[in-house]
Every structure is written in C-alpha cells, then in structure tokens.
Amino acid sequence: MSRISKAQSGMTLAEHLAEVRHRFLISAITVSLFGVVAFLLYPQILHLLQEPYCAARDAAHKSCVFLVTNPLDGLTLRIKIGFFGGLLFSSPVLFWQFWRFITPGLKQRERRYIIPFVSASLVFFISGMTVAYFSFGHAIQFLESIGGKSLLTEYNPNQYLTLFLLMMFIFGVTFEFPVVLVAMEMANIVTPKQLLHFWRYALIAITIASAVFTPSGDPLSMLALALPLTIFYFMAIGVGKLLKK
Q: Counting Cβ atoms within 10 Å, is residue 54 exposed (0-12), middle (13-18) or buried (19+)?
C-alpha cells in the first residue's frame, strides 16, 4: 500500500511520525549535500552577497572591504554561507517535501493543485529574496546616513551577512503571502468575498507588518515589501474566485 493510499485510509500516530521522519531525512540530506556545494563555492557566493554593499559604498566613493577582527571570523563566515546556501539551493526539494507531507490530508480534487502550489511557493520565495537583494544597497546607504559622516564604517562580514540573509529570508517568507491566502480560500477558511470586504484592514496590517519585519528599518525596504504584498492580496482574491468556479 502506498503512502498516500495509507494516509487516505487513516494514518496512525506511528505512521504520521514515520512520515515526518522520512520527509525530514530527505530534507536534511539534501540541505547537507547542497551545503557542501555552497561551502566550496564560498568565494563566488561571498562576492555576490557583497555586491549591494560595494554598490552603496561606490556611490559614496568609499571602499567596500570587510573588517575582520577575529581569526575565526573567516571560518565562521564560510560555514554560515555553506549552511544558508544549502537551504537556498535545496529550497525546491524542501517545498516539495512540505507539500507532499500535507497532501494526504487533502481531498482528491485539492491534491491536483500540489504541483502548481509548489511551483508558486518557490517562485514567490525567490522573488522575495531578489527584491531584498536589490533593496539592500539602499538600506546600507540609509543606515550610514543615519549614523552621520563623522563615523568610519567598516563592517564585519558576519554581522553584515546576518543582516543581509535575515532580510532576504523575511522577504522570501512574506512573499508566500498570496500562496497562503489562496490555500486558505481553497480550504474554505476564508472566501474571496470576505477578503475583499476587509481589504482596508488588510492594508493597515500589511503596512504595520512591513515596518515591523523589515530588519534594516529604512523606508525604501518597507515600501519594497508593502507594495508587492498589497498587490498579492488582491491577486489572491482574483485567483481564489477563478479556482472556486
């Protein structure tokens, strides 16, 4: 009996735990393998992540070198890039494992949407990270301007990378907003009519969330997060109406 057919007939607690372990092992192995790849590609990845910083510094006619004060900073940075690179490179597999895990709980009609949902999740996640990537240079300029010209700014690469990756992760996750809304519509938790009725409150919530969850705190990054989420909200209403027909 296949996993799905067993799930359809009613999975026991032990079978649920076995399913979780199975999905977790696949995900962990995939992240580990891609993490090794990212570790080996460290120079290229670091250069890519350094580009927004260098663009901001070049605009101010400053050098974009990092300041390392601890002998272990280089190793820590390479391990961090390996880990987060592994998560990013393996994201298609992670999304697939997540949706495959919840598939047995869906009806046959809903299960056919699994591939479109996985694809949409991946596209929106990468789109969010891309927006964060191109917004980060402006965030750096804003943060330096707040500090004033009397400060000599040379960043520690680990602290820079932590802020940068956090911003990319938050943007990637929040860009899953329309996928979650459509899933809730398909599960009859909310209806397109209800979402349209509460659009004013949704815009207020989006604005507040963008201000709270933008790590850099600069206005441009907040706008770069709030504007797409607003568009996604109304897009999700339209998609929900189409799927409900």
A: middle
Find where tokens 């895990």 sit.
Answer: 101
**Closest among 244, 245, 214 to 229, alpha carbons compared:** 214
Which of 90, 95, 93 lies closest to 176, judged by CA?
95
pTM, full prediction: 0.79
Both tokens assigned to 68: 């390392």
Query: Could you tell me which of 72, 71, 84 has the C-alpha nearest to residue 39?
Result: 84
**Which residues lie below 8 Å from residue 1, measured CB to CB, with a gap of 6+?**
9
Q: What is the DSSP letter of 36?
A: H
> What is the tens place of the pLDDT at every residue in 162-184?
889 888 999 999 999 999 999 88
C-alpha distances out from residue 208 to 182, 212, 218, 225, Å:
22, 6, 14, 11
From the list 127, 143, 131, 130, the residue with the least C-alpha distance to 53 is: 143
Which CA distances in Å does 161 have to 73, 140, 143, 212?
12, 12, 15, 20
